[in-house]
Each structure stands twice: as structure tokens, then as C-alpha cells.
Amino acid sequence: MRKRIVVGMSGGVDSSVTALLLKQQGYDVIGLFMKNWEDDDNDEYCSSRQDLLDAVSVADTIGVPIEVVNFSKEYKDRVFSYFLREYQAGRTPNPDILCNAEIKFKAFLDHAIALGADTIATGHYAQVREVDGLFQLLKATDAGKDQSYFLHRLNQTQLSRAMFPLGKLLKSEVRRIAEQHGLSNHAKKDSTGICFIGERPFREFLNRYLPTQPGEMCTPEGQSIGKHIGLSFYTLGQRQGLGIGGAKASSGKPWFVAAKDMEHNRLIVVQGHDHPALLSPRVSALGSHWISGAAPLPQHRYAGKTRYRQADAACHFTGLDGERCTLAFEEAQWAVTPGQSVVVYDGEVCLGGAIIEQGHP
Predict the structure, then answer these.
(1) Which of these is catalytic: 195, 218, 315, 325?
(2) pLDDT at position 247
(3) Is residue 251 one of the residues assigned to a domain?
């Protein structure tokens, strides 16, 4: 019996080449297109219809069956409701991380197993390795595309059933393979941002679901600089869209969001990218998840990321208490944002991570 692999096919070039490579390797491949959002399907920003057409076209080209499954209810219950709660609380969540843990490697995995799959595969840039019966999540060869950050909440069961065939490839190689094999989406632009928002203006989208509560925009010293439209609509480190120019202060440096005073509905802003209020040498986090099932070693030197597009930063744990942890970084981290994830690495191995509570001076 050939091993059956169900591939999550999104219509993008990465998942398409994933299916192609597995088919070439002799596996029994089935494509599965996930529909995770349907609230505004006819909206000008929603690309799901075109994505489905692209996925079907590729499946036809490489000769694999494809089916569509609707996970929009699960997505709304498990991901979108959390997304709104976090924004309403003034935090900045990362729904892609939750989508991987709850939809792609839970709802999708369960559906794939029901189809008789031995394994599922996705177009993520990451790698899985088994060592002494434990499954490790590794960074991808293409450092610029590595997506292990978004996969850090997977567990042993999920990783044991996962394949990432692009883990050792460069993105340029993936596009070349797609073109060589006549895949219609070989030059398709990568999707960016949060899947259910697409290319639409973020503030406009959020405004549909969250009320605006205008308030004061202040310096840490309490000087009023302007008005904000609602704390939910800003994130730490934000520079654009504040509506205040350099003319309001003598330095002429740009303004950045440094903190949110939820109690008094005030947005704290500072001038200059390297203002001390934007720098945190220590980070506290909640909801710790460790891929191996065991917590990392305290005092051991690791590398951490407090946001996706960031170089590894040397750090060590100063506290590991159940689901809570605190990390000290050798160099202060910029705009550490509550609700985002701090993800910890030991070399190429992703150990897991936790949701940032706050940064500390």
C-alpha cells in the first residue's frame, strides 16, 4: 500500500510544489483546499475564489484529486473570536499561530485522517526530525522564508503526522520547479497579512467588529499630543497612522506608540526609534508551550524572537513556572508587544514559546 498524504493546497505556489514533489516521490496524494472565512466572500479584498481556482488548476496539472472543506465555523470559534478578544483587551494577537495549532494541524489533520491519510503536508518552510522517539521542529534552510515561528505551538502528535517538503529548498528553487512543471501559479504573488483580512485596510476591517473609544494621545510625562480613535486600533512600535507630525516637539524625530494605558484610555507615544520606553531587556510571557513536552533548561543560553521578522537574539530564562516564563535578553528588544509570541530556539531547533505579557526595562 502506498502511503497516503493529504496536502493542504491553498492555491499558492508553495503548497502546489509540495503536492507536486510528493506525487513525484510516489505517494498517494490528495489535495485539500480549506475554506476558513466566508463572512464577506464577495468583497473586493477576498481572494478565496481565485485561490480555489488556482488550487484546482494545479491539482489537474499534476494529476491529484482535490476536495474543498469548509472550516469557517471552527475558524470563527477557535481563532477569530480569540483575535477580537485580544484586540479588545489592547493586545496584538498573532492569529496565524493559532490557525496552525487549531485549524491546519487539528481540524484539517482530523479530516485528513478520516480520509485515510497517514500524514499531512503543507507548504510551510520548516523541517521535522525524529530523535530518540521525539519529534523536533527545525528551521528551514531558507532563513528568509523560515516559518517555524508560526508553528511553535505544535505538539508531538501533530509533528509526528506532519511533513514539510519545502524545508530544505530556497523559495527561488520552489518557483523554478513550479515553472518547469507548467504550474499556472508559478509566478503568483505570496499572500501577506492575516488570511481573513487579505489586502484590505486593517483599521477598516477591525472597525466592523470593535467599537471605537477615542481618547488622549500622551507622552510618558502626561503631555497631551493629540487624540487616538481607540486603543484596539494601535500596536506597540507603530509609526504610521498616528496623525501627529514632528512639528509638535522640538526634536523633529518621528513618533512611535510605546504603551497603552487601558485604565485611563490613553495611548502613550514617544519620539525616536531608540527611545528607552521602546526597549525591553526582559520579557514576561504566559501560556508556555514546549514542543518536546518538557520545559527548557533555566540559565542555558538560547536564542529568542519576540516577532517574526527578527534576527535571533541571545537570551536565557530567569523564570520557568508552569505556563509562565520570563526571559532576559543580552540586548534590549524593540517594541515588545503584548499578545505577540516570544519563540525560543536552541540552534536550529525550535523549542516552543509563549504569549508575551509585557516587556520590562
Answers:
(1) 195
(2) 44
(3) yes
